[in-house]
Prior knowledge:
This protein has eight helices and six strands; from the N terminus they run αααββαβαβαβαβα. The protein has two domains: 6-54, RecR Domain 1 (Helicase, Ruva Protein, domain 3), CATH 1.10.8; 64-194, Dna Topoisomerase Vi A Subunit, Chain: A, domain 2, CATH 3.40.1360. The termini are far apart. The chain is globular and about 60 Å long. 45% of the residues lie in helices and 13% in strands. Helix 5 links the parallel strand 3 (79-86) and strand 4 (103-107). Helix 1 (6-16) crosses helix 2 (23-35). It has helices at residues 6-16, 23-35, 38-54, 71-74, 89-98, 125-135, 148-161, 186-194; strands at residues 56-57, 64-65, 79-86, 103-107, 139-142, 167-170. By secondary structure, it is of the alpha/beta class. The longest helix is centred in the N-terminal third of the chain and has 17 residues, at 38-54.
Amino acid sequence: MAVYTKAMEKLIEELSNLPGIGHRTAERLAFYILSSPKEKSKALAHAISNLKESIGYCKICFNLSEGDTCEICKNSQRDKSMVCVVEEPKDISAIEKSKGYNGVYHVLLGTLSPLDGVGPDDIKIKELIARVKKDKTKEVVIATGSDAEGEATALYLSKVLKPLGARLTRIACGIPAGSNIEYADQTTVAKALEGRREI
């Protein structure tokens, strides 16, 4: 016997498909939406629909964009000679929040993962190589993750980009600011030692 109406069950099912949303949270969200004014529900539905209709990828860097070119690539104040390579558009947000980078980006839209059948032709590596050649990029900052796929991608990028003459750098990985070394795992401590710099 169904506990909820078909419409409610469908909404709970769809909400629970979102990452990090379990069945209980989906139920709470569904009840919140149900008890909200109709205008709020319509605004939410419109925002989701509009997102899918209006957002694509920048033709230069593959960041999210509402036109052919994203806001970062359009910005004349950005240092176009420095390209930071990230895995996904959401990674740009983390770097931008730090306010420590003023170059441009290149989004790979994934990482190399031979076990999953993802090779160099499946992500935006060819486009990066062409861009570094065309724009005479001075520095490429590789900011892929420190997991196995991110490290494999960084290693592959260093091999294919080194002959192009741009300076290659890798973001340091290690112990977060404000935390104690005693609580860090072995890999984090090893990465922190690798990324050490002079003071």
